[in-house]
Amino acid sequence: MAALAGLRALRRFCGVALFLSQLYVLSGRAGSLMTTKHSQPQSTFAKSLTSTSTNTPYFKAAESTEIPSYVTKCPSNGLCSRLPPDCMTCNTNYSCIYGKPATFDCKVKPHVHCLDQNNHEQENFTINMTCQFCWQLATTDYVCTNSTSCMTVSCPRQRYNATCTVRDHIHCLGNRVFPKMLYCNWTGGYKWSTALALSITLGGFGADRFYLGQWREGLGKLFSFGGLGIWTLIDVLLIGVGYVGPADGSLYI
After folding, report:
1. Where does the record place the TM2 domain (predicted)?
2. Tens digits of per-residue pLDDT, 121-156?
3. Helical H runs in the chain?
4. pLDDT score at 72
5. C-alpha torsion angle, residues 143, 148, 150, 156 (rounded to 10)
6. Pairing between strand 114-115 and 78-79?
C-alpha cells in the first residue's frame, strides 16, 4: 500500500512539472510574438523618418526675385515709345516697304514701367520707325570701334574691320551689333594749320617734318638748308594739299 501511494505521488509530481514546463514555453513564445508585433511599428516609423529625411522638403523654395540686368537700361516712368530696344519686345514686320514709315506693336518686358502721353501706365504700345536694317542707318545713328593701326594717308585709302552698335534711342530691323568696313579716320592730335605754318616759316630747318614725327626727312632738310629752298617749297605744297601727314598715319585735326 505504501508503494502504491508513492507511485501516485510521483505521477502527480511529474504531471505538475510537465504542466509548468509547457506553461513556461508558451509564455516565452507569447513574449517573442509581442516583441515582434511591437517592433514592426517602430521599424516602420523609423523607416518613415529615414525616408522623409532624404526626400525634398515639403515646402518649395522661394522663387528667385532677382531683377534682370536690362532693367538698369530702362528709365522708370518715362514714355514707352522712348524706351531703349532692350526694354521691349516687338512684333517685327519684315514685309514693310524699305525706306517707308512703319508701325510695330510692342510690349514692355517684366519689371519695366512706362507711361503713355496721358501719364497712364501701359504695357502694350506702338512705335513708329523707318523700315530699314540696322546696318543701313546713317553713320550718326551708331557707334563703331576705332583702329589706330591702319594708315590714313595711303593710296588707295585703307579700310579696317569695325564693330558697330546702334544707339539706344534708334529702332531698326535685324541685329543691333554688326560688322562694317570703315576708312581709317583716327587722329594723333596733329594740327594741319600748325604743320603748314611751320613749313612756311621754318621749313628750311625741317621744323615741319620734325613736328610730324618724320625725323629722317627733318634732318635731311636741316643739313641741306631745305634742299637749297626747293625742298621747302615742295613741302609747303604737299602739306597744304594734305598729301604729307603725320608719320603715325593718323589724320590732321
Report:
1. 189-236
2. 888 888 888 899 999 999 889 999 888 777 776 667
3. 2-54, 192-202, 207-211, 215-223, 225-228, 230-240
4. 80
5. 60
6. parallel
Distance (Å, whole) CA 160 – CA 151: 10
Would you state the pLDDT for residue 35?
45
Write out the three cell numbers for 247: 608719320
pLDDT in tens, 147-191: 877 777 666 778 888 999 998 888 888 889 999 988 887 777 788
Helix (H, G, I), strand (E, B) or coil at 107: strand
Q: How far is CA 29 from CA 17, 33, 35, 208, in A?
A: 19, 6, 10, 120
**Cis amide leading into 156 (omega within 30):** yes
- Structure letter (DSSP) for residue 250: P
Closest CA to 164 of 145, 192, 187: 145
pLDDT at 97: 87
Identify the residue whose cell numbers are 522708370.
76
Q: Are 164 and 140 a contacting pair, CB within 8 Å? A: no
Q: Residue 186: CA atoms inside 13 Å, Cβ hemisphere, count?
A: 16
Q: Which stretch of DSSP H or E encloses residue 160?
A: strand 159-166
According to the model, what pLDDT value does residue 187 have? Answer: 74
* Structure confidence by residue, pLDDT tens digits, 38-77: 444 444 434 443 433 444 444 444 445 677 777 887 877 8
DSSP state of 23: H
Which of 188, 185, 190 lies closest to 162, judged by CA?
185
